[in-house]
Amino acid sequence: MKLVFLIFCFPVFCFSQDDLLDEINTDSTGIQYATAVFKGLKIVNFESTKLVAKKQLTFIVAHRFGSIENGFDSFFGLDDAVTRLNFVYGISDGFNIGASRSSFQKIYEFSAKYRLLRQTESGFPFTVVGYNSFLINTGLDKSNLPLLKFKHRLGQTVQVLISRKLNTNFSVELAPTFFHDNLTSSFYDENQVKLSDQDNSQFALGFGGRYKLGKRWSLNMDYGWHLNRDSNSPFKNPLSIGLDLETGGHVFQMHFTNAQGMNTNSFLGQGTGDWSDGNIYFGFNLSRVF
User: Fold this and answer.
1) Buried (b) or exposed (e) across 88-102, using 16+ Cβ within 10 A?
2) What is the CA angle 57-62-63, rounded to 5?
3) Which residues form the DUF5777 domain (predicted)?
4) How many whole angstroms separate alpha carbon 89 and alpha carbon 232?
């Protein structure tokens, strides 16, 4: 974990900021803001500080294949793919709302994303964005959970996204996260002795970065450090690496990650993959602006 932290933080002290002037936007008040901090609404798994412009609708198709470790048995995950359809609308340049449906646990999610502060050329050094979501897990099976009630299907996420564009090519983000699931998993051994009992309220710290490789390409990476995971939990912290390709009216993102779920509660709280044994997932996000 320390190595991952250093990967994201070391460049903060190494990169010159002189060429930030190349990507500055000036508003009607004359204030110059940093632009193109991130090109996608997500870095890989984590939300970025980018927002949809006023009166624009963005449609994102996110596809995550099954684990590649099974090889040709599942055609490298093709047989076990999940999909998320997400609509995000700009109420204003600084306030977005969204609605999505994921085939992973049949999750419906409703979200709000809003800019609190913005990085300027000679003033405030960061962009700060808030993100809140509310989800309904409709995939829970009452036949296996006879005491299941509607409230147990609910979850929520609260995030503060803090980004800085260090120069024309390099941007970083920190994402303190709180998420709550009304129903969490307990695990037992063969003698029905409880091994793990996760708290419903969970905390995490996300790290993300983008490095521009060319006019339309960038290398993206993010990592989620779960802060209060039960010591016997089988779930893993998500580490994701990908490429962004900007082509006209849409951004195409390709990535590898060790979490198949694409909602925050899923990839932070229920990631089962492990990079060390090849249990990872290939996926892509395709966004289109209307």
Assistant:
1) bbbeeeebbebebeb
2) 155
3) 38-290
4) 40
